[in-house]
Amino acid sequence: MLQAAGVGAGDEVIVPAYGNPEVAEAVVHAGAAPVFADIDADTYCIDPAHVTDLVNTRTAAVIAVHRFGHRADIARLHDLGNRHGLLVLEQGESEKPYAEVAQRRAHAAYLSARLNGVRTPDGHEAHTYQQYVVRVPGNGRPDRDAFARVLRGKGVECSVPVKTPVHRLPAFRRDVVLPETERAADETLALPVDGTMSRKQLQRVVSACNALGGLLQPAF
Length: 220
Description:
Layout lengths: L11 E5 L5 H8 L3 E5 L10 H7 L4 E7 L8 H11 L2 E5 L6 H17 L17 E4 L5 H13 L25 H9 E4 L7 H14 L8
Helix pairs in contact: 4-7
């Protein structure tokens, strides 16, 4: 789509740094240069306010990625695109059947009402919970990773959704300040919320997480 729109050498395309490198790779494949934007702390999607700060005469497009079941603020990005003549593209997530989304929402509501010691996701009504992503407070990545190891040891499947932001990968390394991206990469952990989970399995997740909550106090 970038190539079809004439985006190429000499152009810049604003992309989120929090996520997989495929979007930045597509920009490079088109001959343009990726410019990394920070994310919104609640949705993990590209932050329109930071995108606004990055727009310059070389900016040709913005790519928004919907993340974890949150939708990016496409309305604000299209408004920005209309004002500056920018192409606005979206990368979506695979859609789940309605029944599965409803079950995931029910499971997410159960977890959010009972978990402590972690920051639960923003429970916006449009959230489809492609992943149930919490934040582990404390001193950053070592706490999150230690938390994850203990959960796995108790039989609770969990994963780090974004281990390294794209702007820190060797192929795309940039000296940029993206505080929300860095914080999310250090703190986020995806807990199981699959629609097929039983109440007993959900209770195991809650028990395992809450048993660790008292160990995770912010450092002062």
